[in-house]
Amino acid sequence: MKIALLSRNSKLYSSRRIIEAAEQRGHEIKVIDVLRAYMNIASHKPSIHYKGESLEGFDAVIPRIGASVTAYGTAVLRQFEVMGVAPLNESVAITRSRDKLRSLQLLSRKGIGMPLTGYASKPDDIKDVIKMVGGAPLVVKLLQGTQGIGVVLAETQKAAESVIEAFMGVKADILVQEYIKEAGGSDIRCFVIDGKVVAAMKRQAPKGEFRSNLHRGGTSSLIKITPEERSTAVRAARIMGLNVAGVDLLRSNHGAVVIEVNSSPGLEGIEGATGKDVAGMIISYVEKSCKPGRTKTRGKG
Question: What local confidence, expressed as pLDDT, does residue 299 receive?
Fold first, then answer.
């Protein structure tokens, strides 16, 4: 197969592993920086150009689109879809999962467990929103934040009011969520491929920190997940319409709750913690399911 890998940096661990896995299986793979790709949007012959050349003959495309370039990256991916190139994850599913508010509303509609979440735009409503999620301590999240950036733990009512007022003062879009204290600064990353959890790890925040992201000094380890957690992760990925996803869960007193569904989950932590060839599983899925012309929007919303 001829595969396009949409990645801004071919030296990143995840990109390197996908390239290795594809080449080991005899595929041709080309790394494309989405910001250097440009498009001819025409009904008779839509095309994508890259550094002066037309990109043609691809069977499948694997998007590794960073959050900061979601809009342009998904536009390029959508153009591949228009040209009949099958994506690992579809553009509409990636866009859906990247919108934190929209994704939570979709999960809520399908009855998926998640932290109590409030959303408001006016300072006058702050006290009621805090009450809505069970009071302090609580978590305030920027809708555009990634890798734990823009996530604040407010431990008292006064601190919560001050933080929310500050974010609203600079016109930032935020979510207010209950703090799952019993999780103890840890979460579970379930790696879902084609409707199955193929690997799972526990991420633990360092002492004095509540965010467990590996980019923030968190550590990863192998974990055995429950049937409920497995089912929740699979359902969350399906609701987003993602064939490959990293579903982040917390263990709460009322069961597994989803905090995020990631459309471009990193491979380094999960492969290191589990010893599994997750990159190889991704390429196996591409071989089986990403046939030219097989592009359709999955899920709704």
Answer: 46
Compute the distance between CA of residue 63 and CA of residue 33 in angstroms, rounded to an integer. 10
Give me the amino acid identity at 231. Answer: S
pTM, 2 dp = 0.89
Q: State the Rg of the chain over Cα.
A: 20
Contacts of 157 (CB under 8 A, 6+ apart): 130, 135, 136
Does 137 sit behind a cis peptide bond, omega within 30 degrees of 0 on the bond before it?
A: yes
DSSP calls for 10-32? TTSHHHHHHHHHHHHTT-EEEEE
**Which residue, among 185, 192, 245, 180, has the nearest Cα to 217 in the 3D structure?**
185
Q: Identify which of 97, 54, 58 has the alpha carbon closest to the alpha carbon of residue 81.
A: 58
Q: Where are the alpha helices (DSSP H) in the chain?
A: 13-24, 70-82, 91-98, 100-109, 126-132, 157-169, 227-240, 268-274, 278-289
Task: Convert the pLDDT of each residue in 60-110 to its tens digit.
Answer: 999 999 988 999 999 999 999 999 999 999 999 999 999 989 999 999 999
Burial of 45 (0-12, 13-18, 19+ CB in 10 A): exposed
* Domains of the chain listed by start with CATH number: 2-91 (3.40.50.20), 97-113+182-287 (3.30.470.20), 117-179 (3.30.1490.20)
- The letter for the amino acid at 95 is T
Mean pLDDT of the residues in the chain: 90
274 within 8 A of 201, measured Cβ to Cβ: yes
Closest to 30 measured CA to CA, from 85, 82, 92: 85
For residues 124-156, one letter each, b for 16 or more C-beta atoms within 10 angstroms of the residue's C-beta and e for the rest, the string is eebeebbebbeebbbbbbbebbbebeebbbbee
Q: How far is CA 86 from CA 56, 59, 129, 168, 261, in A?
A: 13, 7, 43, 41, 21
Contact 154, 126 (CB under 8 A): no
Q: What tens digit of pLDDT does each residue of 114-135 get?
A: 999 999 888 889 999 999 999 9
pLDDT at site 14: 97
